[in-house]
Write a structure and sequence with these properties.
With about 110 residues, this protein is an alpha+beta fold. It is about 35% helix and about 30% strand. It has 4 helices and 5 strands. It has helices at about 15, 45-50, 50-60, 70-85, and strands at about 5, 10, 20-30, 35-40, 90-100. It has a 3-stranded antiparallel β-sheet. It is flat. The relative contact order is 0.19.
C-alpha cells in the first residue's frame, strides 16, 4: 500500500480512493420531512463538504472533531454537531449509506 504526504500528514492511498455515501435526513416537527439528500466522496471530500456543519457544531460543543480520520468518526461527529445546533422545530440526522467492503447497505 502506497502512502502519500497530504497537508503535512501521511495517509494511505487506499483511504483517499474509497468512495462513501452519507445520507442527510431533515426531520421537522410539523411532519413535512423532505426527501433525504445523499453526498458521495472520499473522507477528505466529505469532511470538506460538511466543514461548516462541523464548525458550527464545534462552536456549541467542543467534543465535535472537525477533522475526523475515519468514515464512522465523520458520521458520529456530524450527528453530534447536528444535535448541538438543532432547534426545537427541525433536526438533521446523518447516516452512512454504503461502505466499501461492508454488507451494511440500505435498500433503495
Amino acid at each position: 500500500m502506497q502512502s502519500i504526504k497530504k497537508m503535512g500528514r501521511y495517509t494511505t492511498m487506499a483511504n483517499t480512493t474509497k468512495q462513501y455515501t452519507i445520507q442527510v435526513q431533515l426531520i421537522r416537527l410539523r411532519g413535512d420531512n423532505p426527501v433525504p439528500k445523499s453526498h458521495t466522496g472520499t473522507i477528505e471530500e466529505l469532511t470538506q463538504a460538511f466543514s461548516y456543519t462541523l464548525l458550527c457544531g464545534y462552536s456549541w460543543d467542543s467534543r465535535v472533531n472537525r477533522n475526523p480520520k475515519t468514515i464512522k468518526s465523520l458520521v458520529t461527529n456530524l450527528n453530534r454537531a447536528a444535535a448541538a445546533k438543532s432547534t426545537h422545530y427541525q433536526a438533521e440526522y446523518y447516516s452512512l449509506v454504503n461502505c466499501p467492503g461492508s454488507t451494511n447497505r440500505l435498500p433503495n
